[in-house]
């Protein structure tokens, strides 16, 4: 397939991208907004953006994705999009009747310089309804930046410190993960006995049960009252520094809520840290149920460690996910030889390199703001035993004939993934099963008759 | 409220003229207008229209000049198959950053082209403009011209800024790019002293046609190619399914243009008639009746008894092959009610006919970008009481499908989960279809798909 990729690597001076490992801010903002209960995300720009984002999210989640658009035409791009947004706000509340509308911008509305807060103030917003916004120019950052900006926007607009003393509750900002992951994070906090607000929370929205009825606003999502109440929480735990830390710091500035920025809890170590943070800050013992799960995880890691040890793995995807995954892969004795994210940000490279150095691994390729052409070139120069990444990795996996495990966003060619967590001990067990099956299936496939065995 | 016969519709006031019920109103449904701001439109943009039309050109570099999103979302989503190059399945973007937006992206574009030419040695590059490029005013034309001369290849700008209309405007931008491509190559036009000479006279090939508006989804263009070959008609080039630089250059040699997807290709056909004197006819290979009629129409055009005879033989043979299979499906699908919401009018018309062939009643039919004359035909074909609507949103779709008791929806990516949530069967008649729906074999596939989704045991658990 992508066999036009060359082995010879020349520095690319243009800054152009061949086969991106990221996409643009607005889709992240749209996804985050879907995690607010009865919220309609609104895309302020041309119709195409909204349509593409809904299509992409639909393909990944296989659930209806609702969002409205300002439907820019030439007039709007010359005279500004104010009139369009005002009309949109009026129409959205009349016809779809959400509790809240979350406006995000596009490269077009950003460039013509629409002043969204002023336009919102001048609009007719019905009593009791809310309009919030996030600035998400597509030419800055990536979809992760957009996600982060919308979550930050939500707390900046809505969170309030209304009580003298902070409540014994935690805000958990889960990052750009699947509804199945958000569900699992909520479960862990619940089992720990810590009152929590997860923001955003797309569980129950993008993995809602089938009832035979179409619900424009399914039951899930963080309620507005809960977002307001995040200002009263004792602390915020931001899972993943790229997607979640901004909102946690915004809450600290606005409402003096103590922030803690942790890794996305992928694998044993990051999950331990998440639970220990809950435990130490809320005076709760780690629950028996979770200890049992941890014990099971360690048990299967022991049972299978010889399958992984020393295997070379190439990982790409969103920064928080890749950072968590890399740590987990190291704990399995694997060697991450190529680690790449499309999202810009030097702390990605610093963090991964430190992890590799601590594990005594040298000579790995690590890059932020990279693309899959570069990733493919790396593999051509230094082959890997396994590849982990989103659907777009399938071209490379085929061209280089490497076992491939799909993790991340988007996954467009498989289903069910969005229901199944990769976070927590349960998620780690699932990842371990996926990785080990990919390697063992491959071994079965490649075995000569005399090496083909029943017991592996 | 006078436009609507349905009870309590949750419809924005401005939308009412875009919805009608066959038999209830004299007035035709309004179409071809901008969407209302704030609606959850199923429509896309100009860039999308241009990209889907041009992307199946297999050996071209499709370079999207803009921030990363536009290129990411259109990376290999068309489902067009290739028998040659795979270049078109990569995703190329200038990945514009803040700095480029402020200082202009022309310089970056030129360097990206340099690097892509070095890596891929293409004969042809399309450079698509996106919203942002339209606003900051990069001179795509000038950059493309300069780079084309530098490398002696063709680099064609596609004026597809997202906000300059809707998807239809993008079709037109794509057709304009195709017309530039079809024109003789610059090196042929240049005389020794660098002056432009008259294009060479085109030699027409008899019994050779261009097939416009098939994108070779799930190999559909190949099926039609084989049918026509059998009756003695050669396909010169398909616009644009599985086409490439060399084949497209030969387009003027055809003696007839046939158009399948009217929305995207009628403009190109008219222009080609004007410039190259190639007549065109509309055809459709979706459904048995349309396929039969289209094969006959093509055969009649050439006024050759041998071709007409071969056409009849092919039709008779194919019908015989599929007859019993179709009858079986027809029986199974008795009493089924279908709803249609697709991109263009041509497809909606074909689907109406196909459902008629299967004995399935259509209770709702709509499109994203249907034209006036297409809605006229839709209205004629629809049965009394059928809801006809343009540029619909999910709320409207839900409401009318529920009220009309539809069992099945035909649509695209975004409509699928909507139908499923309502407990309705669904067929993708857009980019995500994996079985060919063209020709006689396609008619059977269609019936099979309708059957397998409508009659799936899964609905028992809803």
Flag low-confidence runs of chain A.
none
Separation of the first and last Cα atoms of chain A: 32 Å
**What is the total domain count of chain B?**
3
| Strand percent estimate of chain A | 5-15%
> What is the count of DSSP helices of chain A, taking H or I runs of 4+ residues?
17
Average pLDDT number of chain A: 96
Report on the biggest sheet of chain A.
Answer: 5 strands, parallel
Strand order in space, largest sheet of chain B: 1-12-11-10-13-14
Work out the radius of gyration of chain B.
23 Å
**Tally of DSSP helical segments of chain B:** 18
Structural class of chain B: alpha/beta
Q: Write down the domain tally of chain A.
A: 3
Under CATH, the homologous superfamily of the largest domain in chain B reads: Nitrogenase molybdenum iron protein domain
C-alpha termini separation of chain B: 34 Å
CATH architecture of the largest domain in chain A: 3-Layer(aba) Sandwich
Mean pLDDT of chain B: 90
Name the CATH superfamily classification of the largest domain in chain A: Nitrogenase molybdenum iron protein domain
CATH topology of the largest domain in chain B: Rossmann fold
**Shape designation of chain B:** globular
Poorly predicted runs of 5 or more residues of chain B: 1-9
Organism (chain B): Desulfuribacillus stibiiarsenatis
GO molecular function (chain B): nitrogenase activity
Family (chain B): Belongs to the NifD/NifK/NifE/NifN family.
Function (chain B): This protein may play a role in the biosynthesis of the prosthetic group of nitrogenase (FeMo cofactor).
Short description:
The complex is a heterodimer of chains A (456) and B (462). Chain A has 456 residues and is of the alpha/beta class.
């Amino acid at each position: 397939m992508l066999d036009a990729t060359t082995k010879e690597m020349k520095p690319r001076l243009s800054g152009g991208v061949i086969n991106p490992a990221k996409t643009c801010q607005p889709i992240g903002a749209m996804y985050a907004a879907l995690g607010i209960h009865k919220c309609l995300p609104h895309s302020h720009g041309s119709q195409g953006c909204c349509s593409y984002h809904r299509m992409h999210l639909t393909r990944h989640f296989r659930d209806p994705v609702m969002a409205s658009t300002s439907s820019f035409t030439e007039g709007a791009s010359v005279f500004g999009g104010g009139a369009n947004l005002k009309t949109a706000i009026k129409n959205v509340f009349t016809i779809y009747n959400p509790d809240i509308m979350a406006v995000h911008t596009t490269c077009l509305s950003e460039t013509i310089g629409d002043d969204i807060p002023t336009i919102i103030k001048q609009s007719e917003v019905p009593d009791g309804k809310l309009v919030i916004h996030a600035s998400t120019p597509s030419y800055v950052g990536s979809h992760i930046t957009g996600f982060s900006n919308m979550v930050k926007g939500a707390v900046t607009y809505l969170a309030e410190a209304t009580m003298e003393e902070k409540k014994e509750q935690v805000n958990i900002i889960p990052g750009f993960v699947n509804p199945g992951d958000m569900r699992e994070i909520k479960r862990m906090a619940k089992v720990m006995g810590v009152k929590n607000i997860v923001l955003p929370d797309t569980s129950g929205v993008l993995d809602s049960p089938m009832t035979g009825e179409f619900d424009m606003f399914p039951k899930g999502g963080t309620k507005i009252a809960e977002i307001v109440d995040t200002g009263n929480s004792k602390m915020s735990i931001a899972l993943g520094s790229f997607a979640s830390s901004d909102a946690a710091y915004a809450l600290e500035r606005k409402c003096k809520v103590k922030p803690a920025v942790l890794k996305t809890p992928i694998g044993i170590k990051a999950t331990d840290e998440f639970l220990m943070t809950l435990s130490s800050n809320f005076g709760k013992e780690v629950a028996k149920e979770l200890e049992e799960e941890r014990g099971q995880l360690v048990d299967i890691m022991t049972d299978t460690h010889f399958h992984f040890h020393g295997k070379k793995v190439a990982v790409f995807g969103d920064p928080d996910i890749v950072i968590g995954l890399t740590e987990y892969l190291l704990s399995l004795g694997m060697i991450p030889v190529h680690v790449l994210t499309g999202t810009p940000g030097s702390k990605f490279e610093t963090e991964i390199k430190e992890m590799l150095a601590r594990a005594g691994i040298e000579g790995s390729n690590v890059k932020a703001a990279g693309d899959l052409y570069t990733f493919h070139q790396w593999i051509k120069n230094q082959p890997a035993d396994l590849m982990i990444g989103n659907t777009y990795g399938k071209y490379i996996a085929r061209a280089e004939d490497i076992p491939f495990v799909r993790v991340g966003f988007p996954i467009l060619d498989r289903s069910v993934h969005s229901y199944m967590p990769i976070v927590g001990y349960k998620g780690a067990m699932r990842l371990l099963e996926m990785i080990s099956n990919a390697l063992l299936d491959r071994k079965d496939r490649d075995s000569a008759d005399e090496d083909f065995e029943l017991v592996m | 409220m006078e436009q609507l016969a349905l009870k309590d519709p949750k419809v924005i006031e401005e939308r009412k003229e875009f919805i009608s019920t066959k038999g209830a109103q004299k007035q035709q449904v309004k179409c071809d207008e901008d969407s209302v701001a704030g609606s959850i439109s199923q429509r896309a943009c100009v860039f999308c229209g241009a990209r889907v039309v041009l992307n199946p050109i297999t050996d071209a570099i499709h370079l999207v000049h803009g921030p990363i999103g536009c290129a990411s979302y259109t990376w290999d989503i068309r489902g067009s198959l290739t028998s040659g190059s795979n270049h078109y399945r990569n995703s190329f973007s200038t990945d514009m950053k803040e700095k480029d937006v402020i200082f202009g992206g022309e310089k970056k574009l030129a360097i990206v082209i340099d690097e892509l030419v070095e890596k891929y040695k293409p004969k042809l590059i399309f450079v698509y403009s996106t919203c942002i490029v339209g606003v900051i005013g990069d001179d795509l034309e000038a950059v493309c011209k300069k780079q084309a001369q530098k490398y002696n290849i063709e680099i064609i700008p596609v004026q597809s800024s997202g906000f300059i209309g809707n998807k239809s405007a993008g079709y037109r931008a794509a057709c304009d790019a195709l017309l530039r491509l079809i024109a003789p190559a610059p090196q042929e036009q240049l005389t020794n002293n660098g002056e432009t000479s008259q294009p060479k006279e085109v030699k027409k090939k008899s019994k050779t046609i261009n097939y416009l508006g098939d994108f070779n989804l799930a190999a559909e263009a190949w099926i039609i190619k084989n049918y026509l070959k059998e009756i003695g008609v050669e396909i010169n080039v398909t616009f644009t399914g599985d086409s490439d630089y060399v084949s497209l250059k030969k387009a003027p040699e055809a003696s007839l243009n046939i158009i399948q997807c009217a929305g995207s290709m009628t403009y190109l056909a008219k222009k080609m008639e004007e410039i190259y004197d190639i007549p065109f006819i509309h055809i459709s290979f979706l459904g048995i009746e349309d396929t039969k009629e289209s094969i006959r129409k093509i055969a009649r055009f050439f006024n050759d008894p041998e071709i007409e005879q071969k056409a009849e033989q092919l039709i008779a043979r194919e019908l015989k092959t599929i007859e019993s299979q179709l009858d079986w499906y027809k029986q199974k699908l008795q009493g089924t009610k279908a709803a249609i919401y697709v991109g263009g009018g041509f497809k909606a018309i074909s689907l109406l006919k196909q459902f008629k062939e299967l004995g399935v009643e259509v209770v709702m039919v709509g499109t994203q970008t249907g034209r006036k004359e297409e809605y006229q035909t839709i209205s004629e074909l629809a049965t009394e009481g059928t809801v006809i609507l343009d540029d619909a949103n999910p709320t409207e779709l839900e409401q009318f499908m529920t009220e009309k008791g539809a069992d099945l929806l035909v649509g695209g990516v975004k409509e699928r989960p909507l139908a499923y949530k309502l407990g309705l069967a669904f067929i993708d008649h857009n980019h995500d279809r994996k079985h060919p729906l063209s020709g006689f074999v396609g008619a059977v596939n269609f019936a099979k798909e309708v059957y397998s989704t409508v009659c799936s045991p899964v609905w028992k658990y809803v």
